[in-house]
């Protein structure tokens, strides 16, 4: 076949692909209505199904938007950045009017979001900020710095550090290095705890050097993986906790890491109610809430993801109707190119004493699932 024909065939194939993709995506998300008429299509990009909360986030937001008459395309990217970029490109090809994105790596989306901007598609960053691009219009999340502060303050009050108690053995952990939130969680906690590290009331036997908030990546666990945290905790306990030395407190930024850390403590013979350390968390995941009831985790910072979905649905509506989009923070979140107008929701501490009143009575978790 001559070179020209091959080029034409390729061009034809490309054209065919675009039309068929549009055609099949239309059927996938638009029930045969012509692409740019009828209700707006909202693309919802979630990072992964392997971390509990994102399943709730995606389902709740899609349900709200469908009930409001929008077409939706809800996609999960298995924590793979390329997969998320392809999914966003498909949503753009499908003529989405708005993209709601919980990014895996907030620094990797600038090119595809330029394509979106060229087509006047609005972008809402969901829970995690998108960095290094002007093409993000709004950000909705929880007060991420406050999440860390609540974990730090919980440790201070539980150990009596503000009463001069100590020294205690601390092991700090931080979230995934590609997640902008992880920086804020760590900074919130470390701005509370560092003074006690400096005064020697908190000692870090594993020798992790954390002179300032920017050092968080030296204790980060990639992908927020439980097994990554378990392996790291095993390593620290095996190497630095010999001869009867015990860990007194573990700063875990979220529940998926706390689960791995608890498994490591279990396998090293720590006993709840005896020598089990203070262990923090975040998200109110089911397995971790069970651990809280069993004395294997001390607290979790609950973020009612339903309220985040509600707020984002309001933003989508305002954008679609051309009315003012509600924000309550226009200072904190500079993504390296601009300060992104944001809406921050309040995180809440949950301990054994208020699992029922906060997580069960609000309908976030079922009593039957918790054995209550
Ligand atoms: C963060 C999110 C947390 C936690 C973590 C792992 O960005 O804010 O709630 O879930 O990701 O998924």
UniProtKB/TrEMBL annotation:
Localization (cell):
Cell envelope
**Periplasmic binding protein domain mapped to chain residues:** 42-323
Task: Identify the Pfam families for this entry.
Answer: Peripla_BP_4
- Keywords for this protein: Signal
Q: Where are the transmembrane segments?
A: none
Signal peptide residues are 1-22
**Which PANTHER family does this one have?**
D-XYLOSE-BINDING PERIPLASMIC PROTEIN
What name is this protein filed under? Answer: Sugar ABC transporter substrate-binding protein
Naturally occurring in which organism (per UniProt):
Dactylosporangium salmoneum
Record gene name: chvE_3
């Amino acid at each position: 076949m001559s070179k020209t024909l091959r080029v034409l065939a390729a061009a034809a194939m490309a054209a065919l692909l675009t039309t068929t993709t549009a055609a099949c995506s239309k059927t996938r998300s638009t029930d045969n209505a012509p692409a740019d008429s009828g209700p707006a299509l909202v693309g919802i990009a979630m990072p992964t199904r392997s971390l509990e909360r994102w399943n709730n986030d995606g389902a709740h937001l899609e349900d709200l938007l469908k009930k409001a008459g929008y077409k939706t395309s809800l996609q999960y990217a298995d924590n793979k950045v390329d997969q998320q970029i392809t999914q966003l490109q498909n949503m753009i090809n499908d003529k989405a009017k708005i993209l709601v994105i919980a990014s895996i790596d907030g620094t990797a989306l600038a090119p595809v979001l330029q394509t979106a901007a060229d087509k006047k598609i609005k972008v809402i960053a969901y829970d995690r900020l998108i960095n290094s691009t002007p093409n993000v219009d709004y950000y909705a999340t929880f007060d991420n710095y406050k999440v860390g502060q609540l974990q730090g303050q919980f440790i201070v009050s539980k150990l009596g550090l503000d009463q001069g108690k100590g020294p205690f053995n601390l092991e700090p952990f931080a979230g995934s290095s590609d997640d902008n939130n992880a920086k804020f969680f760590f900074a919130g906690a470390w701005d509370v705890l560092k003074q006690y590290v400096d005064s020697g009331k908190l000692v870090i036997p594993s020798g992790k050097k954390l002179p300032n908030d920017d050092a968080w990546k030296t204790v980060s666990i990639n992908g927020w993986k439980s097994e990554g945290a378990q392996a790291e905790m095993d390593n620290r306990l095996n190497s630095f906790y010999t001869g009867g030395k015990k860990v007194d407190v573990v700063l875990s930024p979220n529940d998926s890491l706390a689960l791995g850390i608890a498994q490591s403590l279990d396998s090293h013979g720590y006993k709840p109610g005896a020598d089990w350390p203070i262990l923090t968390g975040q998200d109110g995941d089911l397995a971790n809430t069970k651990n809280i009831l069993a004395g294997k985790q001390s607290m979790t910072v609950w973020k009612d993801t339903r309220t985040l979905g509600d707020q984002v649905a309001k933003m989508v509506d305002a954008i679609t109707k051309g009315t003012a989009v509600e924000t309550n923070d226009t200072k904190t979140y500079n993504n390296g190119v601009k300060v992104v107008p944001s809406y921050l929701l309040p995180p809440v501490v949950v301990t054994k004493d208020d699992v029922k009143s906060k997580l069960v009575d609000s309908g976030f978790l079922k009593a039957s699932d918790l054995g209550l």
